[in-house]
Design goal:
Length: 275
DNA sequence: AGGGGTACCTGCGGGC
DNA sequence: TGCCCGCAGGTACCCC
């Protein structure tokens, strides 16, 4: 499940094969239609063919392909999306859409569950999802003053606040669990009751966990749903301290890790360390 | 306004 | 073996 570090890894891996290349053709399968906007493949093609990809950036988990006329393609991998760039057509049951380049190479967007998105945005136009985002979790503007101001009147629990993309962009379930463990905070603590002195720790641990995960090319869980572009697995799972460790001993205090449900998601924490 | 619930999908593992 | 159920979870959108 791609969160910020996995998204970052995909961008880094495809950049050398995609940057400054010109789009020659666009194809989408019938099942891939629900990913794209505009949904008419002919219209989509018309908007992007002949344009050059000048940059690929990221805000939270959104991926932005910048085209040379100021237009953009905004993509989101959601739970199961991934990118693979190949020399030849890539046969895969869940290969939903492809961009072929004049200079050679094919960009493939694989997505088993078809929750991912791939949207063309005209120059100067807004993207709804992007415009709702708070600062990127790795941006300098995400600091303890920002976070404490943002949360001081929120009654919702701290776990939900960290997962709220309009508060901070890029944190998903796995890393929210890990960040709270390292900041010694109970996931159920109301945001407005987080001690002021703890905010620098939350911010520091957020950046440390995410940067560490980037170094390890992301997290691959037992179900192996995440692979990088070369089919490699992320290696951060060996560093996970609470996520998916129900009943296993806490590495700090040996107490069994507890699993609870918040907002219909599995949340893991040490009831002793994170009191 | 803001919070809660649910839909969107597919694969997989567990229980019977 | 096979079927059914629940789980995985990011975001949009509905409703109250």
């Amino acid at each position: 499940m791609p969160e910020l570090p996995e998204v970052h890894t995909f961008i880094t891996q495809i950049k050398p094969f995609v940057l400054s290349k010109t789009i020659k053709s666009f194809t989408v399968t019938k099942e891939g239609l629900r990913l794209i906007a505009p949904i008419d493949p002919k219209l989509f093609s018309k908007e992007i063919i002949g344009k050059q990809i000048t940059d690929i950036t990221r805000h939270g988990k959104f991926i932005i392909f910048h085209l040379n006329d100021g237009s953009r393609i905004v993509a989101h991998l959601r739970m199961s999306g991934r990118f693979i760039v190949t020399d030849e057509p890539f046969e895969h049951k869940h290969n939903r859409l492809q961009l072929e380049f004049e200079e050679g190479g094919i960009f493939n967007f694989i997505d088993i569950r078809r929750f991912a998105t791939f949207e063309y945005i005209n120059p100067g136009d807004n993207h709804k999802g992007l415009s709702r985002l708070g600062p990127d979790a790795l941006a300098d503007s995400f600091d303890s003053k920002y976070l404490s101001d943002k949360l001081k009147n929120r009654k919702k629990n701290i776990y939900s606040s960290l997962m709220d993309q309009s508060v901070v962009a890029g944190i998903g379930n796995i890393y929210a669990n890990e960040i709270l463990h390292r900041a010694l905070l109970s996931p159920t603590l109301p945001s407005d009751q987080v001690p002021l002195i703890t905010f620098p720790l939350i911010v520091d641990q957020t950046k440390e966990v995410l940067n560490m995960a980037i170094t390890h090319k992301g997290t691959t869980l037992i179900d192996k749903s995440y692979k990088d572009m070369h089919g490699g697995y992320g290696e951060f799972n060996v560093k996970l301290k609470v996520y998916a460790r129900e009943d296993e001993p806490c590495f700090s205090c040996n107490a069994p890790i507890k699993k609870i449900r918040i907002q219909n998601r599995s949340v893991y924490y040490c009831p002793n360390c994170q009191a």
